[in-house]
């Protein structure tokens, strides 16, 4: 799950690559290589299980946005090797934001006084360079984090 890129050879080795022929050359895809480094940092900082959970949550949020924004060409909806690689930087970007703030969202508002869903949306848009407008899946995520914190 966490080994997606061989940094030494700059090749995609994550899903759905199964053979050497599937390993795509990433030498000209610096954003994917950078995402792989951020992914590694995510695992080192938060551990394997929390990283897996956060990446799944990020995928769920990105799928929600792709459907809500009627973006049929969104890479997160694809199943090809090219789609996985194209979606990877956004997936890691969203997961990084979620992981960074998951322990803080039990507070009703951020230090700046705005609600968590809006704040997280702003952080995700900055991290990914995208413009998502619907904080709905982030509100669901915040609510879920608060339920976990209560138990």
Gist?
With 151 residues, the protein is mostly helical.
Number of strands: 2
The proportion of residues forming helix, as a percent range, comes to 55-70%
**What is the string of helix and strand elements?**
EEHHHHH
- Radius of gyration using CA atoms only: 16 Å
Structural class: mainly alpha
Q: Output the number of helix runs.
A: 5
Could you characterize the architecture of this molecule?
- This protein is an all-alpha fold and 151 residues long.
- The protein contains 5 helices and 2 strands; from the N terminus they run E-E-H-H-H-H-H.
- The chain has helices at residues 30-46, 48-68, 81-101, 116-128, 136-150; strands at 5-6, 11-12.
- Strands 1-2 form a two-stranded antiparallel sheet.
- It is globular, with a radius of gyration of 16 Å.
- The two termini are 28 Å apart.
Task: Please render the helix and strand layout as text.
Elements: E1 5-6, E2 11-12, H1 30-46, H2 48-68, H3 81-101, H4 116-128, H5 136-150
Antiparallel strand pairs: 1-2
